[in-house]
Amino acid sequence: MSQQITIERRKAVKHLLRNRDDMLVVCGLGSSTYDVYAAGDHHANFYLWGAMGGAVMIGLGLALAEPDRQVMVITGDGEALMGVGGLATVAAQKPNNLSIAVLDNGHFGETGMQKSHTSLGVDLAKIAAGCGFVGCQTIYDYDGIDAFIHKPNDPSGPRLAVVKITTENPSRALPNVDGVYIKTRLRQWLGHQPC
Amino acid sequence: MASPTPHIWEDDIYNSFKKAGVSQIPYVPDAGHAHLIRRVHANPDMHPIVLTTEEEGVASSCGAWLGGKKSVLLMQSSGVGNCVNMLSLVTNCNFPFLTIVSMRGEFGEFNSWQVPMARATRTSFEMMGVEVMRCNSPGEVGPTVDAALYATFASEQKIAILLSQRLIGRKEW
Lengths: 195, 173
Fold this sequence. Notes:
The structure holds two protein chains of two kinds. Chain A is 36% helix and 18% strand. Chain A has helices at residues 9-17, 31-38, 55-65, 77-82, 85-93, 124-131, 142-149, 179-189; strands spanning 24-27, 45-47, 71-76, 98-104, 107-108, 114-115, 134-139, 159-164. Chain A has a six-stranded parallel sheet with strand order 2-1-3-4-8-7, sandwiched between helices. The radius of gyration of chain A is 15 Å and the shape is globular. Chain B has a single domain, classed as 3-Layer(aba) Sandwich (Rossmann fold). Chain B is 45% helix and 19% strand. The termini of chain B are close together.
């Protein structure tokens, strides 16, 4: 029997990011970027407006570069599926400071709500578990999100949660679209000089 | 199959990486890079990252730079087309980007399947705003990699170095 889906995406992301401290956040293009911005703009956010399929791998490069900080990738099922091979690449590296939260509504929300693979039987948590992620889980309530974020630095490797969300489509919340600004802002916040 | 014979210029590339402080080396393997990849794996200060497809390395290199680290992507020419859309991340955010590409399909190639992408390699990079440099002889490799590393990370340039198949040697079948 399938479980009922009641989690709202904006509220889910607020739960993921509360008590974030200085956690670095990479978000996939489309609704995930709007949700992260709606939860509160932050210099440590790297918003994507394109580069579909790249969020997890940007997160990996950043996590390896900043091993003493927590990095979270917040992305959608469509974006995660486009870069699904990246889950294998991340698992092979075993960064214990990287968490991936997939907001899974089973649809391509930005393009007309066509069903995605996760509506058609594909289970991203099982894919990640098969790759070697630890503690892979599918979350159906806010308590599950709170439990996920309160286990940083699992010594055994990267973590992934699929957060099942409803198909509601809240109005867009648009962060700055200037990629150079977003990049430089994050680098400066980390203390790196612009070229 | 035995490992390919190391080329002396692969050591030149490795030494340039070390001197410049390159710390992340994502790669899809190629025989032309085999010795370099082995050396990277032997250095605890370098993170070799084996990829499932080349565009992953474009994205991870950008993530590395967000965290203040230098990354160079290794691949063969057949993988260049896979990178095209992800290069919009590099261009749009003005990330530094350096890749070293071993060429197949251009000099005495037996496998005709390698030829179309070899012919499209330069165009694929240039149409996405990546400058192409090319090495045809062993003595060119070290200085070219040194110059490209400096330009890439001192002023956020985007460069692909193509190692010609004549330099690497024909694959024997």
